[in-house]
Amino acid sequence: MNKLGYLGPPGTFSHTAALAYARGGGYEPLCCSGLESIFRRIENGGLEAGMVPAENSTCGTVGETLDLLSAVEGVYITGELLLPVRQHLLARPGVKPGEIKRVYSHPQALAQCRHFLQEQLPGVPVIETVSTADAAMTVSGMVEPAAAVGSVSAADTYGLQVLWTGIQDGKDNVTRFLVLGRGKAVVNGRARTSLAMAIQDRPGALYHILREFALRKINLTRIESRPAGSKLGDYIFFIDFLGGEQEPPVQAAIAGIREFALWVRLLGSYPVYREGGETGDPDLAQYCETVDLNGIREKIDLVDGEIMRLLTIRQHLADEVARCKAGKRRIVDRQREEEVIGRVRELAEVNALNPAIVENIYRLIIRGSVLRQREVVADGDGRG
Prior knowledge:
Elements: E1 2-7, H1 13-25, E2 27-32, H2 35-43, E3 49-56, E4 60-61, H3 63-71, E5 76-84, E6 88-91, E7 102-105, H4 107-112, H5 114-120, E8 126-128, H6 132-140, E9 146-150, H7 152-158, E10 161-164, E11 174-181, E12 191-199, H8 205-215, E13 220-227, E14 235-242, H9 248-257, E15 261-271, E16 273-274, E17 278-279, H10 293-324, H11 334-350, H12 355-383
Parallel strand pairs: 1-2, 1-3, 7-8, 7-9
Antiparallel strand pairs: 3-4, 3-11, 5-11, 6-9, 6-10, 12-14, 12-15, 13-14, 16-17
Helix pairs in contact: 8-9, 10-12, 11-12
């Protein structure tokens, strides 16, 4: 049977997620010592799949998972699973809440229960462990009365009693897990795609990247950054969006962002998780845009709005130029105008546009800028 690696020891929420996924996928869960071990064993062929935590609705992203996704080649995201997380306070049988001297758990679990611990166990030290299951195992072997924050599965595995149930601060506490594999998934229904990239150090680079998705009405479901590990200020960006990497709008967006990225790595397209445990939906139409007249017109409207926004920025910059010229007799710079016209004609040719039409448009823009500059200079002279 195919092996599905998860972050051990047994009794972790990763173990619970692996058991839930294995039941429907024909996998046998296999305990691994760390997240990197799961990635490397998939990379080397020792595992067919892996289950790793990606983010929690209360505490945010699991940074190590993102770092490994960008660093380990040949490992792709093939699925996702959303696991409701209920944390419990666990202790050895006979231990009462008032006797507890320390509380052990994984940092994320402690953060998810911060308010409860402060209110119910004020002043009791909290000790971080590598996992909730490790915390339960530690407490089970202690003589000193202590408690662990973890799952019912951890309590059952290590012979602990549940002192308090549902102690997490958020009622809708959910952890998103990613399923990993060596090959890319085949998606028959709604798809989500994940990618990682490093962007060029230039003004507006991130804006231009996000614009490529917005112009095609591709819904971004997550974007965040992680330090690249090279020098301060260098970051790797991670983006999740709805749509499969084989769909034309997605391919066009990815082609567009490469101009502003140092590198782009597609981490995988995979079925969108549905509540109830199903992934994918063969009854839904493929999640891609239908190319029809209305859809094309909507895109044109978005482009027109973008053109107007850029023209406004250009006019503001022209006003700044006018203020710099205040007090000078010469407003028009013919040499500068011809340089601009020459450059836009070259850009038009590169982008398969009619250079003559583009030149006429820009001469009108420049004429409007000159009139505006004269007004700004006149206003400045009048105030002087």
